[in-house]
């Protein structure tokens, strides 16, 4: 069993689904699809709305899916009755319940969606599952794949190095939160906002709005300077937490703010020296601009 999983109780036939803490964004033909990995069945759960949007290019994928659910239920009761809801990041940065389906369920849904993208999408599903299982067997493959993906998107080697380090620091922080009794998911989000607000002056949602982002990863759209300051905030929070040993969300919130303040003070000092703000509107649409 993956000890880094949390258990979410869902009203479906399985009863319990063991999910990794991390929501992931996967790309199909440069279109974003939200996913979660189920370590028990070794399969992804996919946001059905995201898949419908990609396959149909509908201006209202929510309505399309709503109509399709009725059609599927009228025809056979399958697979609609098996669809469950999980919390995933919405466009406003908040965690909201959305319909999800595993690979098998998704393939059955795709059969009911006339789209020239259906066959390429099925191939993508198969490859995605294989890559994840390969990464579990050999974690270095995940790192290499991430590096290659960033390179293909046009990020510089310096930025990629900083980004990979930020992943390591974030993992240390969430491990410390877990040790302190903080619940993954919503409580992690609350503490992340505390850290972000303290160092940048913006919550995660406000920061994404500032950069004109929706479902994209905020860190993938930070400049070098922003990444370094965010890492300073998170590594400071981790260090203070280990030193003070807080218990639960409320005590950890105070630690998160003080950890963020360390980087916030550094940001203000740097801005004073530079004579300009370092919180940038630049995003990955122009990755070369992130080398600040």
Keywords:
alpha+beta; 292 residues; two-stranded antiparallel sheet; 5-stranded antiparallel beta sheet; BRO_N_domain; Bro-N domain-containing protein; 54% helix; disordered N terminus; globular; single chain
Please give a structural write-up.
With 292 residues, the chain is of the alpha+beta class. The chain has two domains: 5-137, no CATH class; 156-290, no CATH class. It has ten helices and seven strands. The strands form two sheets. Strands 3-4-5-7-6 form a five-stranded antiparallel beta sheet. A two-stranded antiparallel sheet has the order 1-2. Strand 6 (84-89) and strand 7 (95-102) form a beta hairpin. The chain is globular. Residues 1-21 have low confidence and may be disordered.
């Amino acid at each position: 069993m993956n000890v880094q999983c949390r258990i979410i109780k869902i009203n479906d036939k399985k009863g319990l689904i063991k999910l990794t803490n991390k929501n992931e964004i996967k790309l199909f033909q440069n279109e974003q699809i939200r996913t979660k990995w189920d370590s028990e069945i070794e399969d992804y759960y996919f946001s059905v709305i995201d898949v419908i949007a990609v396959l149909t290019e509908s201006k209202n994928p929510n309505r399309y899916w709503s109509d399709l659910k009725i059609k599927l239920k009228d025809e056979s009761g399958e697979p609609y009755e098996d669809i469950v809801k999980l919390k995933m990041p919405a466009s406003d940065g908040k965690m909201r319940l959305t319909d999800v389906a595993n690979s098998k369920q998704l393939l059955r849904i795709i059969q009911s969606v006339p789209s020239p993208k259906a066959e390429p999408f099925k191939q993508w599903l198969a490859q995605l599952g294989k890559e994840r299982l390969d990464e579990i067997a050999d974690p270095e493959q995940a790192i290499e794949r991430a590096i290659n993906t960033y390179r293909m998107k046009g990020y510089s080697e310096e930025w990629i190095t900083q980004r990979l380090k930020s992943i390591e620091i974030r993992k240390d922080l969430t491990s410390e939160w877990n040790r302190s009794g903080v619940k993954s998911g919503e409580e992690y989000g609350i503490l992340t906002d505390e850290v972000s607000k303290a160092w940048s002056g913006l919550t995660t949602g406000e920061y994404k709005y500032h950069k004109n982002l929706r479902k994209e990863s905020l860190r993938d759209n930070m400049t070098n300077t922003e990444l370094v300051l965010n890492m300073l905030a998170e590594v400071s929070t981790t260090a203070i937490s280990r030193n003070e040993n807080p218990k639960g969300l409320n005590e950890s919130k105070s630690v998160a703010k003080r950890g963020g303040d360390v980087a916030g003070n550094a940001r203000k000092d740097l801005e004073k020296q530079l004579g300009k703000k370092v919180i940038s509107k630049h995003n990955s649409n122009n990755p070369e601009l992130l080398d600040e």
